[in-house]
Amino acid sequence: MKQIDLSAPSDTSFPQYPVTAIVIGRNEGTRLQACLRALSQQLSRIVYVDSGSTDGSAEFAKGLGVQVVQLDMALPFTAARARNFGLRAAATDPTDFIQFIDGDCILQPEWLPAAVRTLQDAPELAVVAGRRRELFPERSVYNWLCDLEWDTPVGEARAVGGDMLIRHDAIRAVGGFRESLIAGEEPEMCVRLRAAGWRIRRLPVEMTLHDADITRFGQWWRRSKRAGHAFAEGAALHGAAPERHWVAETRRALIWGLALPIIAVLGALLVHPVMLALLLVYPLQVARLSSRLGRKRAVYTLLGKFPEALGAVQFYLNRLRNRRGMLIEYK
């Protein structure tokens, strides 16, 4: 895997890519510094959306010549709102394409040449993404799981994550990201792109290095809970046929993380203790998944259904109370 030499001075002769990079971040510290240094060696147009950092991130970005815009933190924060704010800033000097990247990621040098050429050669494509890898997968099982999560099939895709190269006209035509979503805003935007007739492709190219920095079980639990919230909200928005967006993911979380334990415990209390035998389905499911995923990943996949179910329930309760979901942070 080729990496940029971040200790080298920025090259002032940029390839003529019609690309603006939009970076979002808050108190990312050295991760953001690495992100912006790598971008500054590849692009001359960079917009950094700062979300109330107190670690000098905005000042560092300005020192690199990056355009810095400050998100209004009086309103509830979402990554979707930050990305849309960056889009509005980029629209003052528009380019053909937008490279979205999170502030804890490093853009790889082979990505832009391949991605830009692909979009230029295929006008039906709205967005392309490549391989995101964890920078330190060996530091924790949770970072390792993230690295496996990023390893998605190449070719025609239904959605991408936070790092992507997208046509400016395409994302503007669908209204950008849905700002109320606390997570899952990129796949939801991709649903609307595909409904408008656009296509999405994942390329066999190294795109970004990501530093999840998840070293504690509680962080992983909160991240999984946020995923469950995103599944339920996505299904509520686009769960109808033919899209069925995140319906299966929500169903699996609620069955394995909520329904089965409740049925087993209540059945044992109200019917017969033998109902607790239903819980034996969990080791059986781990054994079934292990043949495909490996034992360690299978255990965490099944365990993750419990926080995912809690996140889904949180969404449903907020909707019943007509309340907006609050951000679920894990860093």
Q: What is the string of helix and strand elements?
A: EHEHEHEEHEHEEHHEHHHHH
Instruction: Write out the CATH superfamily name of the largest domain.
Output: Spore Coat Polysaccharide Biosynthesis Protein SpsA, Chain A
Count of structural domains: 2
Q: Output the structural class.
A: alpha/beta
Record field, number of beta strands:
9
Helical element count? 12
CATH class of the largest domain, named Alpha Beta
CATH architecture of the largest domain: Alpha-Beta Complex
What overall form do the CA principal axes indicate?
globular
C-alpha Rg (nearest Å): 21 Å
Q: What percentage of the residues does DSSP assign to strands (E)?
A: 15-25%
Percentage of residues in helical conformation? 40-55%
Main sheet characteristics: 9 strands, mixed
- Ranges where pLDDT stays below 50 over 5 or more residues in a row are 1-12
Distance between the termini: 27 Å
CATH structural fold name of the largest domain? Spore Coat Polysaccharide Biosynthesis Protein SpsA, Chain A
Average of per-residue pLDDT values:
94
Structure, described:
Helices cover 46% and strands 16% of the residues. By secondary structure, the chain is α/β, with parallel strands linked by helices. It folds into 2 domains: 19-215, Spore Coat Polysaccharide Biosynthesis Protein SpsA, Chain A, CATH 3.90.550; 235-320, no CATH class. Strands 1, 2, 3, 4, 5, 6, 7, 8 and 9 form a 9-stranded mixed sheet that branches. The chain is globular and about 70 Å long. The model is unreliable at 1-12 (pLDDT under 50).
